[in-house]
Amino acid sequence: MATTQHTLLSARGLSKRFGATCALRSADLTVQAGQVHALMGENGAGKSTLVKMLVGALQPDAGTIALTGAPVVFHSVRDAIAAGIIPVYQHSTLFPEMTVADNLNAFDAARESPLWKRKAPIALATYLEIAKRMGLLIDPAQMVSQLSMAERQLLEITRGVARNCQVLLLDEPTAALNAHEAERLFAAINSLKQEGKGIIFISHKLSEITQICDAVTVLRDGCTVLDAVPTTSLSHHAIVEAMVGPVALRAERELPVAGKQRLHVAGLKCGAAFEDLSLNVACGEIIGIAGLIGSGALEVGEVLGGARISSAGTIQVDGVDIAQTSRRRFKQIGVGLVPADRTADGIFPGLSCAINAVASAYTAISVGSFLSNRIEVNASKKLFEDLRVKPSDPSAVISALSGGNQQKLLIIRNLLLPDMKLLILLEPTRGVDVHARDAIHDAIIAAARTGISVVVASSDIEEVMMLSHRVYVMRNGRLADVFKRGADPSEILACISGGQDATNHTGSQHA
Fold it and tell me: What is the pLDDT of residues 49-68, one digit of tens each?
């Protein structure tokens, strides 16, 4: 049953400086009961700083926070959780090799300190009843590693809701979910909304914001530029303009004309992930690999980039077969790879942006065995400017950059590969803001214009359709169909979800 709206959480005039940098300037946020409230902004706009203050991880230099009308001061995340502000982070905090029940018990034991202040443990039956209300039916003896990404998200939400949750903070909750899993999460969010919870929803996906959120707050350069504006009154263009400043509506990008064949794949198989895949990619052509999580789409990209070894078939680049070889061999041939998980598989966190950028090109840019910081900076400087990396100082440590700018650095690293021929990108814009997404798309098309062949494997169907000359749809480990640019999006989505059989929509000499 829906509840009468009233203000649950109010932040007024929050400010925070880190040395000479002002991360937040008098920012405001108001969340009502029974409301899904979007918090948006570019990477570096101040969202993370604001969120850390709301959950007690940072103390504001100025401003106030009130919960149900009463001023509060949180000295730790534990304080905020005890008060009913529950964060669910983008990266799971569950223990995969423990059971569902053990994860719930471990979370319960860590909730309050010291020992004499702890409340009685929450009964497992209570957790399971809450999970059931959100559509999560699981065996408490099941290992968390066996759960889907959506089930893990719902389990984390269940843990928080069980402890007097008033405000639920969801940070990029659908980043690793496919469309079906996202809908399942949205159903749970709507259930919590009906119970009168306030939900802060952080996402860069505009379609999700307009689908699930009631109001939008946008930060830009540390300031609130939209304050709790009803979603129904905003177009996508208006939200983007609030985030980045005045922008012109962008026409569909013009793709380069494809040249001669560069990549030829035949009979490719990779264990149980996918089988019997054949495709061709021409010089200057961009093809998309689309499919739900588990369809084999991401694994195809990993094999084509040399990160995963195929079990059968051929991968020929300019006539040279490199299947069943190493990632080192792929790089020698001129195959670049931007991995799906930049933090785990891409960046070197403690090193500078310049070193990260040239990591794959040391041999080409060094003088003998000597490589200076000046050489590193000069080699990457123009690409830093072209991709609008912020901060633009190549000597900055990469871990200090936002996710979008880290992703740009990984693309720069690959573009610096000697004799670059083929670029494979896996989930290239996952978890980045709309401005960074735009810059990354520009870089992909610019690379294709130089004659580089490009393969984009992404669960973002809109992205794949917008960037690609042709879209290869994977389903259940097999190629389901191929669509040329301009195909009806509803047909592609139907094919991805299994609602349409292959009917050959290629219309392309390269298909």
Answer: 999 999 999 999 999 999 99
Contact 429, 407 (CB under 8 A): yes
Q: pLDDT tens-digit profile of 64-106?
A: 999 999 999 999 998 999 899 999 887 778 899 999 999 888 7
Q: How many helices (H) and strands (E) does the chain have?
A: 18, 20
* pTM over the 0.85 mark: no
- Centre a 10 Å sphere on the Cβ of residue 257 and count the other Cβ atoms it contains: 12
* Cβ neighbours of 169 (radius 10 Å): 24
DSSP 138: -
HSE, side-chain direction, 13 A CA sphere, residue 490: 0
Separation CA 270–CA 203 (nearest Å): 33
Structure tokens at 73: 């001061």
Query: β-strand 85-88 against 261-270: which pairing, if any?
Result: unpaired
Cα separation of the two ends of the chain: 53
How far apart are the C-alpha atoms of 509 and 172, rounded to whole Å?
Answer: 40
CATH of domain 260-497: 3.40.50.300
- Cα distance between residue 204 and residue 440, in whole Å: 14
Write down the H helix ranges in 317-433.
327-333, 342-345, 353-358, 362-365, 373-386, 403-415
Name the residue among 339, 345, 305 with its Cα closest to residue 325.
305
Say which CATH class 7-110+118-244 falls into: alpha beta
Alpha-helical (H) ranges within 229-278 are 236-244
Which tokens belong to 21? Answer: 């940098």
Residues of the chain with CATH 3.40.50.300: 7-110+118-244, 260-497
CA-nearest of 71, 59, 69, 64 to 33 is: 69
Residue pair 422/334 in contact (Cβ under 8 Å)? The answer is yes
Return the half-sphere exposure (C-beta side, CA atoms, 13 A cut-off) of residue 138: 28
Q: Exposed/middle/buried for 78, CB within 10 Å: 0-12, 13-18, 19+?
A: middle
CA 495, CA 511: separation in Å to the nearest integer?
17
